[in-house]
Amino acid sequence: MKFISSALILLSFFPFSLFGQAKSNNTLPEKSINYGIDKTYEPYEFVNEVGNADGFNVDIIKAIGQELNWNVSIYPDDWKIVRRKLEVTKELDVAAYFKSAAREDSILFSRPISLVYYSIFTRADKEPVEDLFSLSGKKVAIQEVTIVEEYFDQLGFLDLQALQAYSSESEAIDAVVRGDADCAITSFMTTSYKMEVENIKNIQSSSDPVFITEYCFVVKKQDAAMLDSLDWGLRLVKASGEYDRLFQKWLTPKKGWWSENQDLVIMFLFILFLMAVAALIYIYSLRNLVRKKSQVIKREIQSRAETEWELIESENLRKKMEDFTSVMLVETDLEHNITQAPKLFYTILGFEEDDILGVNIRQLLTTKSVAKDKEIKTVLLNREFPYLDAEFEFKTSANTAVWIDSSTSLLYDQRNKIKGFKQFLRDITPLKQANLNLKDLNAELANFMYKTSHDVRGPIANVLGLVNLGNMTSKNKEIQGYFGLIAKSVEKLEHIFNDFKEVSFILHGDLNITTFDLRELIEEVSVSVFMKRNKDISKAQIDFQLLSDSQYMTSDRALVKRLFYQLIENVFEHNNYYSTELKITFEKDNASYYKLYFKDNGVGIPENLQKKVFEVFFKGKRSDINVGMGLYMAKKVVSRLGGELNLESELEHGTTIEVILPVRQITETLNYN
């Protein structure tokens, strides 16, 4: 009995001793084996992009070799060549086959490595093939010398149109993609792997698995001992967990990004939701606080605005009272004799009341003012206007001038008949004197600018002459470069003085009103603009459109020419001379005004610069000798002619400038001084 117990104890420890001994590959003799693989059977065994053997079977045999101290050499080739090398030429020791009864006559099979499922694959745009019986009349693609071919040999009752054998399952799937075959019977894992790697979208599995077979290592009939070692090594690989890791790596479908990160994304979104709720609560509370503060500030602003308005009203009332107290009402009869006058009136003129009453008011006026008084009262007697305003120059007792602003209207008696005139007068002598002083200063400034511009031209010409002489006598490139810089600076200085001279002429020159041909003037200016830059005027895209009955205009031709020059030059200087289109439109709004539109398709002017373009010395992006006075002078010309200039522009869509000028009379004599 004691002997039996001892034997049982020894037997119970024997497997563990054997396992521990086998797992230590240091105790096993080193051995070399040759393993053959199908080079295109992904993901089980294949040659990767760098030319090395790879796949599930390859990693398993390597793991077994590590456990058994085998030196495994791997030989990839076409599948039918691998079979011949194992079964016929005996060059290989081990390979991986699908198990079938027909093959057991020539080779030995190990324990299964994995199960392989074969399905029918068709194009997604074709009718699916759901089972083997639906294959009748179809062109079926398979891999040659495989278990699928053996199965079809057994299924002789199927009436196939053609059974197309290819060297690999990958080529069989490619045949379906090209349309050379109606369907392919390949392993589900291999086809799925190919579709993922090559991003194939138009292939579908149209059936349940039609074949399920075991995938095993195989050896030659005489290598039964090696087969036992393979089985034992496979058990060791599974026991160590390496098999599960490799199965997960190669044969388990990869989870998508969403599957792997779903929980984290949901948690992150939930946190964002909580943060958004907290932010909304905070914003709501802050909004209530701001609303309360805003109401307080609004009440304070309203209170201050009411106080400020009261102050403004008080100031306006004070000014009105001052104006009212300075207004004088003077009445005259139809013979223009003064019948009533306030004390302020004869005090300003230096007379006593008795000296004023009954005196003809025209005796107190200068000759020019007498003519103006006659004209005004004649118009009033014709009932053309209810009242007329004018400025009169009175003579004091000391024979000095007093300027008085007058608003004259008719004076009626109780029967509503005209009995004379009433005039509301206000002394404007201080303002008039200030204006005259300002005009004198402007005249002196204009005279200074004109003379300076004229006198400086001689020295400038001398400097330019010396520069040209230096360029002709010096051969030194560096010195010639300096002379060129001096010439540019002097030319710029000359341009500045010319612009000053132009501004002086615009502001203070006499107006010479004539009638001239507008189309002829535009052509003349356009030629000048293009010749200045040595451009070909024949390539210019300038269109003149006449919307008036006549192309003639009555105004100061010299000033209008300066205006057109600055506007047309500005269009082409800031754009391309040949690709820019300029459309000039002329119309007569009524009998009193002309309207001209200068519209181009250029780069346009940014909104933040549109108010600055008419400022003096504003150049925009121009960096040549121009100093930025073009549109400034254009604005001054329009102002000098009593007109209006408006600009409308949109970036990258062009600019339109509207010019409104009054219709002048040729008999007008307009002079600043």
TrEMBL record:
* The protein's name: histidine kinase
Name the species this protein comes from: Marivirga sericea
Looking up InterPro entries in the UniProt record yields:
HATPase_C_sf, HATPase_dom, His_kinase_dom, HisK_dim/P_dom, HisK_dim/P_sf, PAS, PAS-assoc_C, PAS-like_dom_sf
Q: Which residues form a coiled coil?
A: none
Annotated PAC domain ranges read 388-440
Which Pfam family, giving just one, matches this sequence? SBP_bac_3
**Reaction(s) this enzyme catalyzes, per UniProt:** ATP + protein L-histidine = ADP + protein N-phospho-L-histidine
Q: Which residues form the Histidine kinase domain?
A: 451-665
Q: Where are the transmembrane segments?
A: 264-284
The leader peptide range reads 1-22
User: Which CDD domains would you find in this protein's record?
Assistant: HATPase, HisKA, PAS, PBP2_HisK
Q: Which PANTHER family has this protein been placed in?
A: PAC DOMAIN-CONTAINING PROTEIN, PHYTOCHROME-LIKE PROTEIN CPH1
Molecular function (Gene Ontology), one example: phosphorelay sensor kinase activity
Q: Give the EC number.
A: 2.7.13.3
Which top-rank group of organisms is this from? Bacteria
- Asked whether the keyword Cytoplasm is assigned, the reply is no
SMART domains attached to this UniProt entry: HATPase_c, HisKA, PBPb
- Gene3D superfamilies from the UniProt entry: 1.10.287.130, Histidine kinase-like ATPase, C-terminal domain, PAS domain, Periplasmic binding protein-like II
Arranged from A to Z, the UniProt key words for this protein are: Kinase, Membrane, Phosphoprotein, Signal, Transferase, Transmembrane, Transmembrane helix
